[in-house]
């Protein structure tokens, strides 16, 4: 094993070591020990990633097996790494954001009794995510995929005394199961037809797979594979209609909302599709499917952000919408734009989430925006960094979000794939919606009248359980500010990560757009078929980041964004009565949005109810009658009977034992002699 | 006729153990008061024997004592495993014996002589030393089973074992004489030669094989020669049960390999179909009967019957319609199974010893109730053992089952594989029941566990090894394949 290979191993293993230390020996090493161990682990991973990044920059990529677990039926099950430009970028993003979140957590969780457990989980998450992105085969990809899902489940339900948290983590788990089912089918198809789980070996056969049809059904194989894999991505990256778990995942502590449910895990689906670009490029049907799903998510989830009052939920819906943008980019073969947006989004969305967390701490764990307002005076660092994050999110020129989002919109514009027209409409309107809800949140939280310390609004849905408790302990500091109390700025462990995340949120787009989108960075990693436009047309019109930003000032997306900001300012700063009036006038639409298009209700009635009905039918007729009655209890009785019979033989009398042996010899003799 | 001094070098380990057994006997006679002496000397002997074996280990095959003795890699590897499992078994059992006041020096002398018997079995190249080794091992075991002479159960078990063992020895000896009659040779290569040239009388040969099969089956404890197993396992002191369930299985495996594969490979299809009969019956009966047991030792006895049946699946799928292509794979899977079983068996009986105290046997499944509350660590270890025995992935037992099953499927006996898998599922019930009572039932006796540190440490290592070998089974598999390859 070369030194570089050892270094590759260090990257995932250092956080794992931290997780084990904090998780198993948490009591022994104490709170300080837990955060020192895990932060050290992630810091080592981050530094190693930087070193690997430099190495990859110098042209040294790697693809090889580290450990072979077993070989069966011609398939080999391995742990292997594929270190190339895409991987190393993901490694940097994951380790950097994770490191920031680790530091931030010291401040955010410092009163929580589950301190060590929390650090152990987030380090374990970092390990799993790194295994996912560094994998060179489908099996390890699936392992990482499930492992991040598991940690996400554990963290959403971190406060396991809350029934809502338990409900949310169960929901996340079940919805992801639906996605994983598709994903597993996709992997199964790959294994069955390509006979290998190794990326490179599968990609080498891609064109061969494209000509095949699936047995029995006659479906084009490559389309079936891609759609199955994408269903997995839909679950993990929360695309309509498998998005329902992500807003509810906000029940978890804010640091993990930033790390897992915004910056990294939910982008695993995007990463996976970009990684599989040699397969997806061969199926226009699959790409169109991806495009339409992504466009729908981008626009319609944005709408929902408008009616939310919980600060974290606004950010959550914006995450859904931005994931939709990335998916749209995948659909129009602009994989590098999707990955580019993934990266910029990881920074500014983590920033926004951590900013929201800081606000929540300042407000003493009150998340309702209607109780905020005018916070800029009290929390200057949070205010400025959140403003920067919001500007990046709406795609203000020169900010990182501008470069990535504008590239996606241009790529959609250039594309001819079926569904591109619909997608263009969605992403354009989405720009307005994004700007509107972002700045609605910004104004409600940081500007306007100070509404804290007064009678509280309650988001009826989420704080039912806390409501009564809250009235009983009006001064309890976990439930919002008491009258007269002022919000306060968060400690440095919280503000430093905010500042450190603000830097890439503003700058990274400017510096990396050229190599990532139009340069040769992703050559040989991401494939764009000849029949797809991808980013070619954009590259022709690209004259450097400054020119792009200046040009951006004159284009429709910019004015749509500005329109959104102005409307938000007018509605919430100048005439605060308007939203209520609109709400009254367009009651049905508001109801539709309040209920999130009734997705949850539909799922509950149709899928859950249907499943229950089906289950009941099967239970009564199939289970109790057939399986329990005949198969299970029948066999169990039979087994039990045989077992009892065999006990009868075991009398303890030695002559019977000897007799049995003689009989055995007799049977062997007669049988084999008669056989000849 | 001139006497040639034989080459003692290949048999150095056997000679060393024989001398040490006598030394322990003498030492314990003259230093009766020093209680630890016999134990310490025995452990020293086992460890030193391992060094001697490793030192004398050679890549090639060597014969000595007029071809009665063979030194080869298979024998050396099995001997090392035998020392290893004996040393661990004695270590586990020491406190248990002391609590019951039966840690007499004679016990260790018997253990060493028994070890010597197994070594002779493993390195026999001839029917006679094989038989002598077998008797040496068995006599030691009979005495050890009845060692707790004040316990009616223990003496009864020893008596049964002795009488039935004598019967089985008689059958085996009869079989050997038939083989000699048919082939005119007692040496394995001579037998193989005669069979190959079809010089042997077919009827007499087959007759002999049937009786050999009875003897081997008795030592392995497979149906229908298994009747002694549950009674002896339950009746013997747990420390002795631990010994019966481990090293002798390796010796019996060696016996099966030497007799069947070395001597009678050319009539493989005859004995394979007999093995099929006993293996399938063992898997079925072992798993079904284990379900009805409430005594853990008895349950493990039946589970051992089914495990030995599984091991035989590997031995019976070597030759398919004259094609010997799969032989190495099949036999090494059987060996891997035997070794895995020994490792799991050590841990399972070790757990029973861990929970037992003076005047109390933790041999009922109920005694494991709520173990998680008393000691989460050892509950986890027991869970590893049970999962592994049930063949749940990522434990060594899974790979053991997987390897024999793939051998069976490769040989084309799909129906056997199906029966084996179905029976494993049924078998999972009683293993998982132990896990269930440990984690979900309230403890009968909430007292924390008191056990010597070395037992705790070694048992933990044993449990962890089951998990670790499940993650990296390849090395052990390769060793088994290599050992067989070098001596086939």
TrEMBL record, chain A:
Region feature (Disordered): 456-487
Membrane topology: Multi-pass membrane protein
GO molecular function: NADH dehydrogenase (ubiquinone) activity; NADH dehydrogenase activity
InterPro entries the record matches: NADHpl_OxRdtase_5_subgr (IPR018393), ND/Mrp_TM (IPR001750), NU5C-like (IPR003945), Proton_antipo_N (IPR001516)
Xref: NCBIfam families: NDH_I_L, PRK06590.1
UniProt biased composition (Basic and acidic residues): 456-479
Gene3D superfamilies: 1.20.5.2700
Bilayer-crossing regions: 6-26, 33-53, 86-106, 118-135, 141-160, 172-194, 214-235, 256-274, 286-307, 314-340, 346-363, 375-399, 419-439, 492-513, 556-574, 654-673
Protein name, entry field: NADH dehydrogenase subunit L
Alphabetically ordered keywords of this record: Membrane, Transmembrane, Transmembrane helix
GO-annotated cellular components: endomembrane system; membrane
Automatic annotation (TrEMBL), chain B:
First-tier enzyme category under EC: translocase
GO biological process: ATP synthesis coupled electron transport
Any GO CC annotation of this UniProt entry: plasma membrane
EC number from the UniProt entry: 7.1.1.-
Keyword Transcription: no
Superkingdom, taxonomy of origin: Bacteria
Matches recorded under Pfam families: Proton_antipo_M
Catalytic activities: a quinone + NADH + 5 H(+)(in) = a quinol + NAD(+) + 4 H(+)(out)
Residue span, NADH:quinone oxidoreductase/Mrp antiporter transmembrane domain: 124-427
Residue stretches in coiled coil: none
Subunit structure: NDH-1 is composed of 14 different subunits. Subunits NuoA, H, J, K, L, M, N constitute the membrane sector of the complex.
Name listed for the protein in its UniProt record: NADH-quinone oxidoreductase subunit N
UniProt organism field: Azoarcus indigens
């Amino acid at each position: 094993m070369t030194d570089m290979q050892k270094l590759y191993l260090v990257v995932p293993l250092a956080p794992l070591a931290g997780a084990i230390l904090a998780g198993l020996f948490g009591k022994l090493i104490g709170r300080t020990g837990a955060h020192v161990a895990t932060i050290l682990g992630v810091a080592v991973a981050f530094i190693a990633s930087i070193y690997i990044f430099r190495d990859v920059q110098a042209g040294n990529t790697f693809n090889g097996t580290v450990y072979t677990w077993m070989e069966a039926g011609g398939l080999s099950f391995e742990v292997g790494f594929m270190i190339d430009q895409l991987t190393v970028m993901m490694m940097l993003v994951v380790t950097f954001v994770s490191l920031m979140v680790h530091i931030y957590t010291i401040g955010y969780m410092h009163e929580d009794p589950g301190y060590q457990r929390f650090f152990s989980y987030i380090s374990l998450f970092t390990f799993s995510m790194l295994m996912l992105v560094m994998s060179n085969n489908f099996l390890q990809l699936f392992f990482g995929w499930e492992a991040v899902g598991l940690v996400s489940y554990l963290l959403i339900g971190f406060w396991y005394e809350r029934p809502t948290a338990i409900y949310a983590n169960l929901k996340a788990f079940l919805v992801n199961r639906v996605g994983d089912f598709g994903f597993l089918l996709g992997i199964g198809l790959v294994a069955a037809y390509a006979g290998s789980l190794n990326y490179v070996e599968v990609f080498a056969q891609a064109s061969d797979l494209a000509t095949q049809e699936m047995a029995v059904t006659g479906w084009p194989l490559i389309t079936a594979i891609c759609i199955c894999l994408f269903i997995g991505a839909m679950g993990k990256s929360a695309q309509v209609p498998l998005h329902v778990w992500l807003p509810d995942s906000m029940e978890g502590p804010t640091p993990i909302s930033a790390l897992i449910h915004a910056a990294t895990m939910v982008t695993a689906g995007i990463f996976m599709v970009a990684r599989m670009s040699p397969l997806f490029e061969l199926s226009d049907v699959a790409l169109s499917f991806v495009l339409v799903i992504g466009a729908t998510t981008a626009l319609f989830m944005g709408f929902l952000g408008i009616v939310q009052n919980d600060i974290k939920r606004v950010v959550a819906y914006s995450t859904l919408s931005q994931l939709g943008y990335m998916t749209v980019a995948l659909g129009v073969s602009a994989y590098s734009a999707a990955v580019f947006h993934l990266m910029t989004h990881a920074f500014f969305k983590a920033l926004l989430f951590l900013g929201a967390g800081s606000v929540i701490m300042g407000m003493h764990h009150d998340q309702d925006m209607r109780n905020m307002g005018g916070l800029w005076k009290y929390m200057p660092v949070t205010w400025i960094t959140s403003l920067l994050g919001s500007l990046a999110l709406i795609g203000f020129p020169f900010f990182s979000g501008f470069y990535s989002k504008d590239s996606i919109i241009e790529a959609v514009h250039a594309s001819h794939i079926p569904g591109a027209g619909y997608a263009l409409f969605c992403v354009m309107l989405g720009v307005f919606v994004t700007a509107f809800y972002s700045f609605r949140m910004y104004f409600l939280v940081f500007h306007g009248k100070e509404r804290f310390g007064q009678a509280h609004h309650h988001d009826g849905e989420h704080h039912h359980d806390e409501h009564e408790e809250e009235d009983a302990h009006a001064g309890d500091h976990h439930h919002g500010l008491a009258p007269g109390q002022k919000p306060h700025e968060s400690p440095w462990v919280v503000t430093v990560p905010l500042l450190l995340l603000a830097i890439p949120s503003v700058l990274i787009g400017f510096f990396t757009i050229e190599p990532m989108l139009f340069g040769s960075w992703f050559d040989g990693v991401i494939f764009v078929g000849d029949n797809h436009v991808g980013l070619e047309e954009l590259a022709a019109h690209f004259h450097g980041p400054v020119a792009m930003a200046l040009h951006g000032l004159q284009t429709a997306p910019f004015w749509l964004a500005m329109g959104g900001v102005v409307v938000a300012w007018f509605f919430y700063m100048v005439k605060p009565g308007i939203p209520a009036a609109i709400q009254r006038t367009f009651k049905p639409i508001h109801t539709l949005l309040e209920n999130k298009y009734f997705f949850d209700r539909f799922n509950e009635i149709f899928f859950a109810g249907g499943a229950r009905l089906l289950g009941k039918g099967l239970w009564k007729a199939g289970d109790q009658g057939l399986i329990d009655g005949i198969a299970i209890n029948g066999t169990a009785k039979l087994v039990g009977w045989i077992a009892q019979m065999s006990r009868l033989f075991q009398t303890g009398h030695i002559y019977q034992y000897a007799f049995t042996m003689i009989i055995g010899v007799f049977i062997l003799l007669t049988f084999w002699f008669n056989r000849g | 006729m001139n006497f040639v001094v034989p080459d003692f070098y290949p048999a150095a380990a056997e000679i060393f153990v024989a001398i040490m057994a006598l030394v322990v006997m003498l030492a314990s006679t003259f230093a009766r008061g020093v209680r630890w002496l016999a134990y310490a000397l025995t452990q020293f002997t086992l460890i030193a024997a391992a060094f001697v074996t490793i030192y004398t280990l050679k890549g090639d095959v060597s014969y000595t004592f007029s071809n009665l003795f063979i030194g080869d890699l298979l024998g050396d590897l099995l001997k090392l495993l035998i020392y290893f499992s004996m040393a661990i078994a004695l270590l586990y059992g020491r406190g248990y014996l002391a609590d019951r006041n039966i840690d007499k020096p004679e016990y260790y002398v018997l253990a060493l002589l028994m070890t010597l018997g197994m070594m002779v079995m493993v390195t026999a190249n001839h029917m006679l030393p094989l038989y002598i080794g077998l008797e040496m091992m068995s006599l030691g075991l009979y005495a050890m089973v009845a060692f707790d002479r004040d316990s009616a159960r223990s003496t009864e078990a020893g008596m049964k074992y002795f009488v039935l063992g004598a019967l089985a020895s008689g059958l085996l000896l009869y079989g050997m004489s038939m083989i000699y009659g048919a082939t005119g040779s007692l040496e394995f290569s001579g037998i193989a030669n005669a069979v190959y040239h079809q010089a042997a009388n077919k009827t007499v040969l087959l007759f002999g094989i049937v009786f050999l099969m009875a003897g081997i089956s008795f030592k392995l404890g497979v149906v229908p020669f298994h009747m002694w197993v549950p009674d002896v396992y339950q009746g013997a002191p747990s420390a002795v049960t631990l010994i019966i369930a481990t090293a002798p299985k390796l010796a019996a495996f060696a016996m099966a390999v030497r007799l069947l594969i070395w001597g009678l490979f050319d009539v493989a299809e005859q004995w394979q179909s007999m093995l099929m009969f006993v293996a399938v019956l063992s898997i079925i009966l072992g798993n079904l009967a284990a379900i009805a047991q409430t005594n853990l030792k008895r349950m493990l006895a039946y589970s051992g019957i089914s495990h030995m049946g599984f091991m035989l699946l590997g031995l019976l799928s070597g030759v398919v319609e004259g094609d010997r292509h799969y032989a190495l794979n099949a036999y090494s899977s059987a060996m891997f199974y035997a070794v895995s079983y020994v490792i799991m068996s050590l841990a399972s009986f070790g757990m029973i010893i861990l929970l037992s105290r003076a005047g109390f046997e933790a041999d009922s499944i109920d005694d494991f109730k709520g173990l998680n509350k008393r000691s989460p660590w050892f509950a986890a270890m027991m869970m590893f053992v049970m999962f592994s025995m049930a063949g749940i992935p990522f434990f060594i037992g899974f790979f053991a089952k997987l390897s024999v099953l793939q051998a069976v499927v490769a040989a084309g006996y799909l129906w056997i594989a199906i029966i084996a898998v179905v029976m494993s599922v049924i078998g999972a019930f009683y293993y998982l029941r132990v896990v269930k009572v440990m984690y979900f039932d309230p403890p009968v006796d909430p007292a924390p566990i008191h056990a010597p540190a070395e037992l705790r440490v070694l048992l933990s290592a044993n449990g962890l090894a089951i998990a670790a070998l499940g993650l990296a089974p390849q090395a052990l598999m390769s060793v088994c394949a290599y050992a067989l390859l070098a001596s086939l």
